């Protein structure tokens, strides 16, 4: 594909004000009749040919102003429909196309999932249904008639409100949907099929009744009630926190089993991967419930941030995605524990975005160019995009932030907006110049902030010298300083918070210093004792922090910091250093009692009152965290061994306390998927995991008992996870029992696939090849592929990165096999190579060889060609 550049944006030459679609569903020959009401765009070029986008389309007929078009008047190919000289006055085009939804394995456009028909149009799937101006700044009012066999598809859903339904003859029926809100075609959707539903009614803040429903495959309605409840809570939250009311008479969610990503925010008709809808105590973990809640909220919140205000072009993707992730994170923080949610979000940010940002696929939150837009639905656009919004709120304060949001909704409702327009609302609402801040959208890479403190006991002053530097990223060799809000405090040796002298952070929000140059020195006065600085509280900016604190100082923060995030961070840093020392030495050098003692004390004080937080503290940094910390010439086996050594040592040192806590937390209360219950289960399972590392024989027994006795998936699967790391007969027995018990549940078998793909042993690759022949596995289903092959590539550091290159070869083979069928899923899988440059030379050479083999294969999709090309650059 050609390179598309932001600077080349120009307004559309034609507008489509209205579209009337008539879609006659058929398994192999669906007919789409589209009547488009067009006119020249006053802001476009006058009297130019009209060029509509298509993708693998077949034109059946074309009429201009209801008169069949003469062959000289137009040119049609699968990719394009050109009308050479369109009428000067507003006119209509009536376009008839035919598509085969059964043959659509890309899962873009109209396709079949199970026995249902569904669509996915973002980013550029609508052009696989009919010829259109498939760009987000063409806003159109859609009326959609859907017709199908009544037996095959009794349920027919579209965007907007239902306006009519009836018989269509020959056993067929129809439904007409009208969406009064102009929208880009990427938000278009239809669904047809035999589906069950759970339904309810939501009354909005102005008293309007909205029929809300979640549709699922027949027989699964009971598993959709949690999603429906999450939806109603999301609707109420957006009213309460952002003043945003829902705007149609109905809101439908449909769960399908074949879906390229998590879910899609089509206006009034969200379509979901069923993994993020279906849940019951027996089949879903607490993490699944939390994901369902977050994604239901995310798609719902898009109704305002994405749909009512959409993006001018795809370079502005973070305008809707970063903002909507920020909103769903805030929602989950309000519904659950704010501190624990923040820790979980930062873990994801570091694992996904920091990894992306330090490798060949690094790009700005708002990219300047792309070849394949589907490859830019990334952790940078989404998660770093959300961090930029959070920094904005930290910089200007909650009130100005809310005023800025109100202004944005007010001013840009019904339009396709840009990042500049968005940022200007906050500059206006706060009276601040946000010019430099906006550089976060343009400059890729993760800044490193270095902090050095000096206490002058005579003068009772504390000086903090801060510097920042951002490493180069592809296409951006030189970096400028960013605007970095550093939320901070000083903690005394015995734990008391030391009041900050006002001058130190003058001109900023209280407790926040803004580092906006390459370096700065902060001086605190009246500091009675040598303090321990607590920097980047709440992870106030997406940066790496280097700070010259020793273990004792870190443990002061762990114990006393008023900021829960930094408590957790301090414990992680201590653990990270212990693992890094073990990587160097090959053994845990001198057993460091301080960490075990601090954890023991912490558990005795906090496990009872805040189990969810305690579970986060007990979870060691991952192998990937350690690898990123090392940064270059990484040997994944050495990282694995070192982490395991530290874990074993810690588990053994704390074995008594862990066992005690484990049994205290054992409850026979019925499972409730709420935050409190989830927190207790998380801590109990963290105890089991660490205990089993320190005392493998007893741990195996305990895990086996929990595995068999569990009355919920959280506990059963956590136990299976512990067993999966203990080679032997018990593990194989448990795995067999699990697959037998859940043999009819594809989503649960996905967990089983994924767990086995992550076993850090050389036999895993063979196990994986065997599992690909399992009857439940299919290369055609994205969830299956991601569970088995994706987990191996993305979450099995030692085996994907085998020194002999067999892991790379396997994943490369899978990418190529998938590419012919589903390029988006193939390209996403290939991003597992994004960290290849930080490996030691032998593995680096093997990874490069595999990447070159992919890149050199003829007939690659633009998706895979783009990722392989950039990965090698
Ligand atoms: N907007 C969709 C993602 C579409 C991805 C297209 N390749 C889901 C979401 O972010 O809410
Ligand atoms: Zn989104």
UniProtKB/TrEMBL annotation:
<dbReference type="InterPro" id="IPR012779">
    <property type="entry name" value="Peptidase_M1_pepN"/>
</dbReference>
<dbReference type="GO" id="GO:0006508">
    <property type="term" value="P:proteolysis"/>
</dbReference>
<dbReference type="GO" id="GO:0016285">
    <property type="term" value="F:alanyl aminopeptidase activity"/>
</dbReference>
<dbReference type="GO" id="GO:0008237">
    <property type="term" value="F:metallopeptidase activity"/>
</dbReference>
<dbReference type="InterPro" id="IPR037144">
    <property type="entry name" value="Peptidase_M1_pepN_C_sf"/>
</dbReference>
<dbReference type="GO" id="GO:0008270">
    <property type="term" value="F:zinc ion binding"/>
</dbReference>
<dbReference type="Pfam" id="PF17432">
    <property type="entry name" value="DUF3458_C"/>
</dbReference>
<keyword id="KW-0479">Metal-binding</keyword>
<protein>
    <recommendedName>
        <fullName>Aminopeptidase N</fullName>
        <ecNumber>3.4.11.2</ecNumber>
    </recommendedName>
</protein>
<dbReference type="InterPro" id="IPR038438">
    <property type="entry name" value="PepN_Ig-like_sf"/>
</dbReference>
<feature type="domain" description="Peptidase M1 alanyl aminopeptidase Ig-like fold">
    <location>
        <begin position="445"/>
        <end position="547"/>
    </location>
</feature>
<dbReference type="InterPro" id="IPR027268">
    <property type="entry name" value="Peptidase_M4/M1_CTD_sf"/>
</dbReference>
<dbReference type="InterPro" id="IPR001930">
    <property type="entry name" value="Peptidase_M1"/>
</dbReference>
<dbReference type="InterPro" id="IPR024601">
    <property type="entry name" value="Peptidase_M1_pepN_C"/>
</dbReference>
<dbReference type="InterPro" id="IPR045357">
    <property type="entry name" value="Aminopeptidase_N-like_N"/>
</dbReference>
<keyword id="KW-0378">Hydrolase</keyword>
<dbReference type="InterPro" id="IPR035414">
    <property type="entry name" value="Peptidase_M1_pepN_Ig-like"/>
</dbReference>
<keyword id="KW-0645">Protease</keyword>
<keyword id="KW-0031">Aminopeptidase</keyword>
<keyword id="KW-0862">Zinc</keyword>
<comment type="similarity">
    <text>Belongs to the peptidase M1 family.</text>
</comment>
<dbReference type="Pfam" id="PF17900">
    <property type="entry name" value="Peptidase_M1_N"/>
</dbReference>
<dbReference type="InterPro" id="IPR014782">
    <property type="entry name" value="Peptidase_M1_dom"/>
</dbReference>
<keyword id="KW-0482">Metalloprotease</keyword>
<feature type="domain" description="Peptidase M1 membrane alanine aminopeptidase">
    <location>
        <begin position="226"/>
        <end position="439"/>
    </location>
</feature>
<dbReference type="InterPro" id="IPR042097">
    <property type="entry name" value="Aminopeptidase_N-like_N_sf"/>
</dbReference>
<dbReference type="Pfam" id="PF11940">
    <property type="entry name" value="DUF3458"/>
</dbReference>
<dbReference type="Pfam" id="PF01433">
    <property type="entry name" value="Peptidase_M1"/>
</dbReference>
<feature type="domain" description="Peptidase M1 alanyl aminopeptidase C-terminal">
    <location>
        <begin position="552"/>
        <end position="872"/>
    </location>
</feature>
<feature type="domain" description="Aminopeptidase N-like N-terminal">
    <location>
        <begin position="21"/>
        <end position="187"/>
    </location>
</feature>
């Amino acid at each position: 594909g050609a390179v598309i550049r932001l600077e080349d944006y120009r307004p559309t030459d034609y507008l489509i004000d209205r579209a009337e679609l008539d879609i006659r569903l058929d398994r192999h020959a669906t007919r789409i009749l589209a009547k488009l009401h067009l006119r020249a765009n006053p802001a476009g070029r006058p009297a130019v040919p009209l060029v509509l986008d298509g993708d693998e389309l077949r034109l059946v007929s074309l009429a201009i102003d209801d008169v069949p078009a003469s062959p000289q008047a137009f040119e049609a190919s699968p990719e394009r429909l050109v009308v050479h000289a369109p009428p000067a006055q507003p006119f209509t085009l009536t376009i008839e196309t035919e598509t085969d939804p059964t043959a659509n394995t890309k899962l873009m456009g109209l396709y079949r999932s199970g026995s249902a028909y569904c669509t996915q149009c973002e980013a550029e799937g609508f052009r696989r249904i009919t010829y259109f101006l498939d760009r987000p700044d063409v806003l159109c009012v859609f009326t959609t008639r859907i017709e199908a066999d009544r037996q095959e598809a009794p349920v027919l859903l579209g965007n907007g409100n239902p306006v009519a339904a009836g018989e269509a003859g020959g056993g067929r029926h129809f439904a007409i949907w009208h969406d009064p809100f102009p929208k880009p075609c990427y938000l278009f959707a239809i669904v047809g099929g035999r589906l069950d539903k759970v339904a309810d009614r939501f009354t909005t803040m102005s008293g309007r009744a909205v029929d809300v429903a979640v549709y699922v495959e027949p027989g699964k309605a009971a598993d959709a009630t949690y999603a429906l409840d999450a939806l109603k809570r999301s609707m109420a939250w957006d009213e309460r926190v952002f003043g945003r009311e829902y705007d149609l008479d109905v809101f439908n969610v449909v769960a399908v089993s074949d879906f390229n990503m998590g879910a899609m925010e089509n206006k009034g008709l969200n379509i979901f991967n069923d993994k993020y809808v279906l849940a019951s105590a027996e089949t879903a973990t607490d993490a699944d419930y939390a994901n369902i809640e977050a994604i239901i909220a995310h798609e719902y919140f898009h109704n305002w941030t994405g749909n009512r205000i959409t993006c001018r072009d795809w370079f502005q993707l973070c305008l809707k995605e970063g903002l909507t992730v920020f909103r769903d994170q805030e929602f989950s923080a309000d519904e659950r524990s704010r501190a624990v949610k923040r820790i979980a979000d930062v873990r994801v940010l570091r694992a996904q975005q920091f990894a992306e940002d330090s490798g060949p696929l690094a790009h700005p939150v708002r990219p300047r160019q792309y070849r394949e837009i589907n490859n830019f639905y990334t952790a940078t656009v989404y998660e770093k995009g959300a961090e930029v919004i959070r920094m904005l709120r930290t910089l200007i304060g909650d009130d100005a932030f809310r005023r800025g949001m109100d202004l944005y909704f007010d001013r840009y409702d019904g339009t396709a907006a840009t990042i500049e327009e968005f940022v200007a609302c906050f500059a206006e609402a706060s009276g601040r110049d946000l010019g430099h801040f906006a550089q976060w959208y343009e400059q890729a890479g993760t800044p490193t902030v270095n902090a050095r403190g000096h206490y002058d006991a005579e003068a009772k002053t504390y000086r903090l010298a801060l510097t920042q530097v951002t490493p180069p990223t592809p296409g951006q060799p030189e970096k400028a300083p960013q605007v970095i809000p550093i939320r901070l405090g000083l903690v005394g040796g015995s734990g008391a918070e030391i009041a900050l002298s006002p001058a130190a952070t003058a001109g900023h929000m209280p407790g926040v210093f803004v580092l906006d140059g390459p370096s700065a020195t902060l001086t605190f006065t009246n500091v009675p004792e040598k303090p321990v600085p607590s920097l980047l509280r709440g992870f106030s900016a997406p940066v790496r922090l280097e700070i010259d604190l020793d273990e004792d100082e870190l443990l002061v923060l762990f114990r006393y910091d008023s900021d829960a995030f930094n408590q957790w961070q301090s414990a992680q840093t201590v653990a990270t250093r212990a693992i890094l020392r073990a990587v160097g030495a090959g053994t845990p050098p001198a057993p460091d009692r301080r960490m075990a003692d601090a954890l023991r004390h912490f558990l005795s004080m906090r496990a009872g009152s805040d189990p969810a937080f305690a579970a986060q503290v007990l979870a060691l940094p991952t192998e990937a965290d350690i690898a990123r910390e090392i940064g270059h010439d990484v040997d994944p086996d050495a990282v694995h061994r070192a982490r395991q050594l530290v874990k074993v040592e810690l588990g053994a040192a704390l074995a008594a306390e862990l066992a005690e806590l484990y049994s205290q937390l054992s409850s026979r209360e019925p499972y409730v998927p709420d935050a409190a219950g989830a927190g207790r289960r998380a801590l109990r399972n963290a105890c089991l995991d660490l205990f089993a590392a320190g005392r493998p024989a007893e741990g195996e027994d305990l895990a086996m008992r929990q595995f068999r006795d569990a009355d919920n998936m959280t506990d059963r699967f956590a136990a299976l996870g512990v067993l999966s790391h203990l080679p032997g007969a018990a593990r194989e027995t448990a795995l067999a029992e699990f697959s037998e018990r859940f043999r009819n549940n594809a989503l649960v078998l996905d967990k089983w696939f994924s767990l086995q793909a992550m076993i850090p042993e050389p036999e895993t690759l063979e196990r994986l090849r065997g599992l690909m022949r399992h009857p439940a596995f299919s290369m055609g289903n994205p969830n299956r592929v991601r569970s088995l092959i994706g987990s191996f590539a993305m979450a099995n550091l030692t085996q994907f990165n085998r020194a002999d290159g067999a892991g790379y070869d396997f994943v490369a083979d899978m990418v190529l096999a998938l590419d012919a069928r589903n390029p988006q899923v193939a390209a996403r899988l290939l991003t597992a190579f994004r960290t290849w440059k930080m490996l030691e030379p032998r593995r680096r050479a093997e990874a490069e060889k595999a990447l070159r083999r992919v890149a050199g294969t003829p007939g690659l999709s633009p998706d895979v060609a783009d990722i392989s090309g950039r990965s090698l650059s």
